[in-house]
Amino acid sequence: MLRDGCRFCGTLLQHVFLDLGMSPLANSYLKAHQLNQMEPFYPLRAFVCEQCLLVQLEEFESPDHIFSDYAYFSSFSDVFLQHAKDYVDMAVERFSLGAQSYVVEIASNDGYLLQNFVARGIRVLGIEPAKNVAEVAIKKGVPSCVKFFGTQTARELVAEERRPDLIIGNNVLAHVPDLNDFVGGLKILLAPEGIITIEFPHLMHLMALNQFDTIYHEHFSYFSLTTVNQVFAKHGLTIFDVDEISTHGGSLRIYARHDEHQLKPVTERLMALKKKEEAQGFATLAHYLSFSEKAREVKRALLEFLIRAKREGKSIVAYGAAAKASTLLNYCGVRQDFVDYLVDRSTYKQGHWLPGVHIPIHDPERIKETKPDYVLILAWNLKEEIMKQMSYVRNWGGQFVVPIPEVRICPDQYVEGSSFAK
Hints:
The relative contact order is 0.12. By secondary structure, the protein is an alpha/beta fold. It starts with 14 loop residues before the first strand and ends in an 8-residue tail after the last strand. It is 32% helix and 19% strand. The chain is built from 14 helices and 18 strands. The radius of gyration is 22 Å and the shape is globular. The strands form three sheets. A seven-stranded mixed β-sheet has the order 6-5-4-7-8-11-10. A seven-stranded mixed β-sheet has the order 14-13-12-15-16-17-18. Strands 1-2-3-9 form a four-stranded antiparallel β-sheet, with helices on one face. It holds the Pfam family Methyltransf_23. InterPro entries: Methyltransf_Zn-bd_dom_put, Methyltransf_Zn-bd_dom_put_sf, MeTrfase_14, SAM-dependent_MTases_sf. Residues 247-405 form the C-methyltransferase domain. This is Putative Methyltransferase.
């Protein structure tokens, strides 16, 4: 049980959603001198609250420790850069933003999104707790302050600045240990007729597509529309619209306003998605408790494939040193006896080792040198981008393998002998 109960409603947590054993912090990449040092592991166990049905992890490390020097830079993904540009194009048109507008992004990372507003002459501010990442944004001309966001930061900003017309929070809500403080801060900061957009991975897709590897210690909560609606409503914010988007294997973008701002009515699209979640069981505890076996089956299938491939003398490398890679490989116990090395485009990760399993991380160019038989795509949410970039792998007969939602050789060949073979 969690020591402090549900982080939203305070109910004692007694129901396990998924137990992935012991795991290190997913983004705690190791340098050579750290490989022989003791490494902290923590229970990677998600609970579901029987009252509000929020799926959540216990907090073992503070956000200060996790995010003060962060290894994730959004600009290394072409997909996310295009997603950010498309979002800005949409927001400018839909909300009639211009030179008179003011936009604030929470967890603004390296400025990959706000730089598009800056290019349009729209005033912006990024709020980013990782100093090393914020410094990159500032060099791009994106004003950024190094802070964690909550009610205190919101009050400070209101005292110093005008309240923003648009607040953006992409892939940050899951990283917040104190949900009520964070959403309460949104309420304080937002202009009276302002709009909030928040993007987060959709729990419905996580469960339907076995995306259990997106569970790691840096993500404190996992949201359905049903649950996030409760959180915002508690703080006087109305979610009035929603988009289903493709990022991170299936996400939601919610649109929220002050309860008092009645000019934007709740859309039919939002009501339809709430009914869809209800029909699939997201209003009942039993639905959440059915997920564990799906993760175990993916583990068995991946190990079956890796064991068979190695017995056949095949070489295997992996693409993507993201947090989901750490979760999957640590859960499955996959080390260099199965995977020779990892590659990643992020220069911040190259020359390091993945936590826990200690697999070295190299530049993707190394694949051209070693010509592996299989490239295991651990960043499966970017598999189309990766296979396009690495299409030369097929020149020597190499093949791409994706582990989630089931083990298969891309584009559509299921692994024979696995539990998912056709």
